[in-house]
Fold this sequence. Notes:
The complex is a heterodimer. By secondary structure, chain A is an alpha/beta fold. Chain A contains 8 helices and 8 strands. In chain A, 30% of the residues lie in helices and 21% in strands. Chain A is globular. Chain A starts with a strand and ends with a helix. In chain B, strand 3 (60-63), helix 3 and strand 4 (93-95) form a beta-alpha-beta unit. In chain B, helix 2 (36-48) packs across helix 3, helix 2 packs across helix 5 (140-149) and helix 11 packs across helix 13 (343-349). The termini of chain B are far apart. Chain B is built from 14 helices and 18 strands. Chain B is 32% helix and 18% strand. The chains are: A alpha/beta, B alpha/beta. Chains A and B meet through helix 4, helix 5 and helix 8 of A and helix 2, helix 3, helix 5 and strand 7 of B.
Amino acid sequence: xxxxxxxxxxxxxxxxxxxxxxxxxxxxxxxxxxxxxxxxxxxxxxxxxxxxxxxxxxxxxxxxxxxxxxxxxxxxxxxxxxxxxxxxxxxxxxxxxxxxxxxxxxxxxxxxxxxxxxxxxxxxxxxxxxxxxxxxxxxxxxxxxxxxxxxxxxxxxxxxxxxxxxxxx
Amino acid sequence: xxxxxxxxxxxxxxxxxxxxxxxxxxxxxxxxxxxxxxxxxxxxxxxxxxxxxxxxxxxxxxxxxxxxxxxxxxxxxxxxxxxxxxxxxxxxxxxxxxxxxxxxxxxxxxxxxxxxxxxxxxxxxxxxxxxxxxxxxxxxxxxxxxxxxxxxxxxxxxxxxxxxxxxxxxxxxxxxxxxxxxxxxxxxxxxxxxxxxxxxxxxxxxxxxxxxxxxxxxxxxxxxxxxxxxxxxxxxxxxxxxxxxxxxxxxxxxxxxxxxxxxxxxxxxxxxxxxxxxxxxxxxxxxxxxxxxxxxxxxxxxxxxxxxxxxxxxxxxxxxxxxxxxxxxxxxxxxxxxxxxxxxxxxxxxxxxxxxxxxxxxxxxxxxxxxxxxxxxxxxxxxxxxxxxxxxxxxxxxxxxxxxxxxxxxxxxxxxxx
Lengths: 169, 418
């Protein structure tokens, strides 16, 4: 679950180069309802993922997570299926922006792929910059988000951020 | 210290005297482009931001291209809602389902100019760097913020210089240059970076070929690809724009993250093998692999010169009986040129299918899907697992020439060996 700037849940691992076609295949791009998109989250890798994942669980990726298409459907599907955060060795640029813009924490955390096994319990302290593997006791630091992104995430995403700061833009 | 093209364009767009790689700038957008499948999400985001009207009705360009014409009820509803939105907002530019792929239509209709900041709700927006613009793709919420405010935040990218020199051998195309480059740099080797393409080969390359190069910058994680504008660029733009623009060039002492030197003369046709764009091999290592479907088209390789080279190979020959060859022009303009030049006649006589312009065959949309176990060879840009139909299909990327030659032979084939 996500409380304030903390996330805790079970880890789901997906490896390197998880592209957005795998997260939400092209045939679902006509969807505009986020809950419908959520039914297809990770369908290209594990069609059963939406039934297994629980609110607040953490998607753990390797390098280049979210590469490919700019489809925001990918980040939306993960958020609405209940994923509390995505932690990866590295992210592709557009997915990274999309996730933060939606208020879904995307955290670059070198060493995470090796430090976490599928099913481990993770606790993430967004303000403290730490990912704790409660199953093994291992602690990792994630790369701090740029200041502007912390603000966006803190306000729940870009929609609320722009609404709150419209006159400054 | 000098500046790269990206640094200069982003300084101008953000009203700063200088922008350095690594800085975050708030930039004014010159063109905001949206294709059909991401528009409604962006509009919903804009409205959720408390804004009812787009910031500038002349700077928003909507192009209905991914599912064109609509093949499902849902797509038909999306298109209907976009048309209504465009009318309500009094948008000056809506290109409907008869127009073509957004990245071909946008420059053809004169929306892309050197030095401009072009943001699109599609990852292949980097294509427009071929005209010396800074062009990059974003998601729908970012686009919603642009519709609401006309501005976006961007991290000024470091730049990788890709210097290509020498004459391309026969049957070696710009696509082979960019596949080779992707193999060298890697699928995430240019993340957050711009790629500037320079060198003699680029100077001699057509605008169409330059678009192929810049189009695939995203396949290395790149934010944009850029070719400095020259007379070829200006010739293309002459009839299409008002001709008012300020070309931007890199300073001689600009700072680059790294330089990749490519010797064009030593290249052979390249193939990107499943399931990664950087899994690139020279054709000699892949030749002989049987294929079920071949596709020439997309924003990467659906322009007239791509169709012409395919037709020149197919003329007087037949598509192999075990292969479906699908050819899709990138726009209505390309379609008309292909009609005029007789290219379509040659292709269809040889057994190819010719379809109206759309993105469908590239992204596993409404045409040309692969069944489990099938092998597709395509001139498009992504060979991801499941990209063109079944996750159990295999997708290989190649140039239009190699794709056409392989459609004739029934297996991956160097055109020279037909």
